[in-house]
Amino acid sequence: MCNDGIRVAVAARASVAAGRLAGIAFWLVYLPATAIVCAITTAAWRAVGIPPLLILPLDFAWAGPLSIMLAPIVGAMAYDLGF
User: At residue 63, what are phi and psi to the nearest 5 degrees?
Assistant: First the structure.
């Protein structure tokens, strides 16, 4: 009976490791594929003349430190409202 418990514990650890490896493999494929598709799509839309729906300013000189700290909190609160 003791041996069965050891087998179950070892099998459980192996399945967790296999699941983590599968997850890592997924993300290693998904992230570059998504970046490539986004780059190709953006270039195609730009060539056709379709402007972006939303343009985000990437310099935060206009925002003070307090607004940069509060923005994620407000975003999380707005996200939580839907659930």
Answer: -100, 135
Alpha carbon distances (Å) from 69 to 34, 55, 77: 28, 21, 14
Decide if 60 contacts 68 (C-beta within 8 A): yes
pLDDT tens, 12-51? 566 777 888 898 999 999 999 999 999 999 999 999 999 9
- For the chain, the three-class secondary structure string (H helix, E strand, C coil) is CHHHHHHHHHHHHHHHHHHHHHHHHHHHHHHHHHHHHHHHHHHHHHHHCCCCCCCCCCCCCCCCHHHHHHHHHHHHHHHHHCC
Q: Is the pTM of this model over 0.70?
A: no
